[in-house]
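From the shared-data thread, chain only:
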Amino acid sequence: MGAAEVSPQMAFARFVRRAIDDAREERGWTVTDLATHTGVGRSTVFRWLAGDWQDYPELAKVRGFCAALDLPVAAAFRALGLPDAGAVPRRRAAEDGPVEADVRVILERLADPNVPAEEKHHIRDLLRYLARRPVRRAG
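Structure, as tokens:
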């Protein structure tokens, strides 16, 4: 493995570490709280953090982990070196409409480790607000 290559275990461990750090910072969660809310046991979380797995993590657990933490599943699958299974299939950029392009940019910001946790928190809050807002019919 070259110096630039990172194993799926290492990449996924980094993804999980960022998720745990964000959950602690944004929600005040401990690893026990995280296990309770995500349905992923503490021992599994610690194995993921240690990169201590030979077979890929159960994808249902990865999906549950991401859903509970408002993380894009595609980012977890990329860290695992898997295709974006379960995600909306990627279309060619020329076929993407403005909404798809905007959503992709937002998801990339949420998955970017360089974006501060506070900014991610604001993005998620705004998305939750918009998702719950009543739709006004043009009339």
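Helices lie at 8-27, 31-38, 42-50, 59-68, 73-79, 98-111, 117-132.
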